[in-house]
C-alpha cells in the first residue's frame, strides 16, 4: 500500500525492537501433561562414557536406557542411530529431539527427525508438528515449514500463528497476511497473539490501511487491545513516516501509554530529525518529555 511518507528510507528497519525475533506462543491442548527431558550442553559426537547393561535388563530396556542417556547428553546422532534400530520413542522424546535440533539450527538433523516422526504414531500430533514448523522456520526453510503445515490433519491457533510469524521473519510478510486471510476464511478464531503478529507484518510491509482495519477487527472477536497491539499501530504509522498520526493515536489511547510506546515514537522522530524535518523535532521533544515523566513517576 502506498505510504504518505516522502522518504524511501525503511523506517521500520531502525525503530521496531527485535522484529525478527518475534515468535508466537504455541497454544494447544493437553501439552501440560508432557514435560521435555532437560538436556545438557549440546554435543553431536559419541559420549566417552556409555551406560552399562544391568544384568536384570532386557536388550530392549537397555536401548531405552541408552536413548534417555543420549538425549540428556544432547547426542542427536546417537539417538537417531537408536531410532533406526527400534521404534520406542515417545512424545517427550520427540519433543526433546526437535528442541535439540532447533537449538543446533541443524536443518539436516531436523529433517531426519521429521522422517522418524512421520513414520511414528505421533506423526499427526499437533504440538509436535508445531514444534517442527518452528524448527524449519528457525533454520530458514519456510518452504519445509509450509509443507508440514499443509499436511497436518488438524491445526490449532498456534499452528497458524507459527506460519504467519515464519513468513514474516523470513522476509515474506505478504504471504503471512495471506495465511491470516486463509485462517479467517476457514473459521479459525484468531487470538491476541495472532493480531500482534499481523500488526507487526503490516508495519514491515507498509500496510497502514490493512493494519488499522485489522486493529479495529479485534472487536469482532471480543479481544481487548493490549499494549503490544497499540505499539503495533504506532510502529505501522512510524514505518510509513506518518508521525503526526502516530502521536495523535498515542494521545487518544484509552490506556496510558507506557515507556516503550514513547520510546518508539522518539526513535522514529530521531530518524526524521536526521532528515531535518521540523515537525519530527517537535515530536521528538514531546516524546522525550513524556518518557522522562513516566520514568520519574
From TrEMBL:
Quote the Gene3D superfamilies the UniProt record gives: Tetratricopeptide repeat domain (1.25.40.10)
PPR repeat windows? 125-155, 156-190
Q: Which GO terms describe its biological process?
A: RNA modification
Q: Where is the composition biased (Polar residues)?
A: 23-38
Alphabetically sorted, this entry's keywords are: Repeat
InterPro entries, alphabetized: PPR_At4g14850-like_plant, PPR_rpt, TPR-like_helical_dom_sf
Q: Which residues form a coiled coil?
A: none
**Which residue ranges are recorded for the region named Disordered?**
22-48
- Record flagged with keyword Cell cycle: no
The molecular function GO annotations come to: RNA binding
Q: What name has this protein been given in UniProt?
A: Putative pentatricopeptide
The protein's organism comes out as: Medicago truncatula
Its taxonomic path starts at:
Eukaryota, Viridiplantae, Streptophyta, Embryophyta, Tracheophyta
